[in-house]
Amino acid sequence: MSLPAFQHLEKKIGKQIRFLEMKKGAIGKHIERRFKIFDEKKDALGKKIGKHLREFEQKRDDDLRFIRTWFEKPLAMGAVAPSGRVLARTMARYVDPNGTGPIIELGPGTGPVTDALIKNGVDPARLVLVEFDPAFCRLLQERYPQAMVVQGDAYTLSKLVGALLKTPAAAIVSGLPLMTKPLRTRLRLISEALTLLAPNAPFIQFTYAVVSPIPTRLAGVRAERSEPIWLNVPPARVWVYRRG
Ligand SMILES: C[S@@+](CC[C@H](N)C(=O)[O-])C[C@H]1O[C@@H](n2cnc3c(N)ncnc32)[C@H](O)[C@@H]1O
User: Is 0.70 topped by the overall pTM?
Assistant: First the structure.
């Protein structure tokens, strides 16, 4: 091979080497990027699995607490398990999260409806949680530190929370097993509740019964109902009562 031909070949090979080195760098960067994306995805997945696991554990613990309390006082509990998500969400949807004024929850238990209210945008600081069971009260205060937890009998509502409210309530959400109480007790409760509520504000109640826990033809009360929630165990329905 002549010298110029050799020099030409050397140049060509040098160029090829530089090109390959550039390519090697680009491939390296690409692999690095892929690894980073993989790590990020792995972390996100780990967090998601962790969150689901914690939710699953909390639900299992709540179910156990609930059934234990039901064994002790079945009539006050009125159910063997906390409300399901669909029922809790249906109740929460009747509350305007952008309004002002306190939102009172009666018989929050382990807090499935409280959770749904907060997930729906309600500021926890607006919540007044009225619960009879002291163990549930402790749990609620731990889970919702911004909410006001009131331990006591919701059937004496005005006496219990009347003085605590600075403005009329924006909504009352009730998980009380109303049907276990005589009609006159239910009527007294709805009458006290509507007095504490702002005009047109809802009193939201769920029931497993096929009829309304409050007579729908009551003077001065407007009633509406949701579709049956078949996905809840047992199936339930939400009733909403307002002044009018
Ligand atoms: C059917 S459970 C509903 C619990 C929760 N809201 C849910 O949806 O899973 C009834 C709840 O009302 C509470 N409760 C029953 N009688 C009460 C009363 N007189 N005053 C306050 N809470 C009461 C029980 O302790 C229990 O937490």
Answer: yes
